[in-house]
Amino acid sequence: MADEATTHAEEHHTSTGISNEKLAMWVFLGSECLLFGGLISTYMFNKGRIGPNDIGPDDVFDIPFTSVSSFVLLMSSLTMVFAVSAIARGDLRGNRIWLATTAALGATFVAGQVYEFTAFYSEGLGFTTNLFGSAFYALTGFHGAHVTIGIIMLMSLYVMSMRGNLGPERAETVEIIGLYWHFVDIVWIVIFTIVYLFPQ
Amino acid sequence: MTVTDRTITAPEETLALPAGPAVAHRPLGVFTRPQGSEGWRSWLFTVDHKRIGIMYGAAAMFFFLVGGAEALFIRLQLATPNGSVIGAGTYNGVFTMHGVTMVFLVIMPMAAAFANYLLPLQVGARDVAFPRLNAFSFWCFLAGGLLLVSSIFIGGWFQNAPDGGWFNYAPNSGLPFSPSKGIDFYAVGLQITGIASLVSSINLIVTVLNMRTKGMSFFRMPVLTWMLLITQFLLLFAIPVITVALFLLMFDRLWDANFFNVAAGADPLLWQHLFWIFGHPEVYILILPAFGIVSEIIPTFSRKPLFGYHFMVASGIAIGFMGWGVWAHHMFTSGIGPLAVAAFSVSTMFIAVPTGVKILNWLATMYRGRLRFTTPMLYAVGVVSMFTIGGLSGVTHAIAPSDTQQTDTYYIVAHFHYVIFGGALLGLFGGFYFWWPKAFGYKLSEAWGKASFWVMLVGFNFTFGPMHILGLQGMSRRISTYRADEGFALWNMVATIGSFVIAVGVAMFLWNVYASTRKWQRAGRPDVGPDPWDARGLEWMTASPVPEHNFDSEIEVERLDEFWHRKYGVDENHRVVKTATAEEVAHDGSNTKVHLPSPSYWPIVLGGGILLVGYGLIYNLWLAAAGLVLLVGAIYGWILEPADDPDAAGHHDDHHDDGDGHGDPSGNGGPDGNGESASAAAPADTEEAATVG
Fold first, then answer.
1. Domain ranges of chain B
2. For residue B557, what is the DSSP state?
3. B49-522 has CATH 1.20.210.10 classification
4. Looking at CA atoms only, how far is residue A132 from chain B in angstroms?
């Protein structure tokens, strides 16, 4: 990491040695923390504010199912690391394979979320049903949107790579998208713990 | 298309370049880059931080006149008991839009104008880190601002204006209590301006952290740079919190969610918490830029270095941190419990300490200085004195029992106008006078400037001073009228007269701009020189107005106030003597070979897409879908844009890689296959601030 930083310093002449793009991503992720922090707080504030006979977390959550889809999302972080490492070595084919795998795992997670939302809805929990419904869908839906944007970015990288525009000199671009991807995963760990695992 | 070769465009003498032949060098014309630095189109597509700064300033001044007109309507309505100038419903819209406009569309963008124009210059950079994103920030802000202000006219005069106060408490903001479209405009418009602030803050933080010139360590940065940097960090962390609140509010109103629906068991205090966790840092977002400006003006006109530079910076940082721990002092009467009230009371008293440090340091800077009372200096001294009054009344709010009495009275209105008008706005006006010659090449008239300062100051005190008394007498905020037997008539009349005096002062400022410009043009545009005030920062070390490329060569900084030290030395008797003139030290702007970022169509297109999405959310989702298509198209157009402009010979380009922070899959050249360009080398390989090309 230190070696890499010095190379960048020579390449970009930035004051910190970190490239502008990577620093911007870090700063942006700092802001995202507060965004998710606000939503998570809202969820915690509201999840218990339902009537005694209202549909609540215990009625809908399928923890084994969500655990599997969470595991899939966590594995996508591993494949993202492989993608970054492949392009750093100059292995463009490996990079493409791992980018596609990461996107596919992410898509599996989103598909699981869509399935989950549909199942919950059919059990009677809509977005407007009660406060728990509003808060749950807003928080997890917002996270799902983040994963989706990540998938679009990964697919765009894949297309770029296919067209020969993603060589080893752009390893940092993949790394920066990777930062975003890992962040979204970490946020899911927090959301999964707080929303699904905490006793209701 | 007018082809203008930027390499030969002298910065100041505007070459009227003939229209060249239109060159079709891309099958898809939109993927070429706009060119030229003359004419109105060059402003629409510019990525130059200085032009963007000027556009921010102009837009903020426009919104200032709108918000000022609303203020005058408020004062006319309240001038006499049982006022009937505007009805109660309209009055709600007028005071809400006055607050929203002044906070989000005037003070914040005016500060952004200074940040954009000055930050790169003060750290010795050639531009911001991401020039295209910078342009996008401006257009996005303008989109949000126009959307908000358009609510005044759409569907009838103030029929659809936000009417819940600038902090828009729940559940009053819900559909049952506010069925017009007004709150929708509020929720959507502020989300859009929030995106603009967020993008801009990321950009400016990276600029300051990464693009400092050689030797410009953190503690050699001017105090203005420091204060603006802290402001950007506050924005970075505060904007997402209000975005969440607005997001939930929008879901409630547009799609029947329950976040603030009391009938479904919601607690409306959630809105207050989210709003004020944003709202109190926001107060410092408004004031810190003005503190920075004052910290530049006072040393210059006291002819002394700033007293206690490190302490000044540290107190700014302290304010930046402590600003997060005081939000509930806005909620003392909301029933948050005695422990919370006590804790926030104490933290609120504490935050007065770093602010007091700043006041004392400015006084110590002026003490035994050789003071020159120019217009900017008058404004700066005005800030020090008026802000002190506002700060002291602020401390009285920290005392919870006293605050309970003052809540929602005119005492609060008086307090925050003393800090925001008497602090932030006077500081920003002082900044206009101070940096006007730097940006435009001529000074504003000192005579008119001083006259308008005094008129504004007197009018200001007549308007807001009496509100302290009215508040302590018990006059409520946000009530459109009062009875004759309540004893509020005298001071309300005084305040109304005062508000029109302020309006005269503002008109004098505008006249000053007009008259000084005319005078300068008639005199054959004489050169004001790089350093008309004998100032200290790097921004004075280049020609006025600042050439497009900022500095002719990279400056190496050895100490704080580098430029001043290059002008002055110490003789054998330890007396400070002038050793060089500014003209000798400063760059003359003659180097025309500096690599510059190319203009771009996409920032304004993206801003337009966001505007459509905004109206679409409020009125018709199909319109939002169309806006979304435009938005996504603009993002991909942005990415696919040629990294380097083939027509701008010799121009490298450094913003082909500036999209990564915001969901762009790649910032780089892309399938357009511009293989010979910078994209073939490492990304961002031409990030050379002010480098001779």
1. 49-522
2. P
3. yes
4. 9
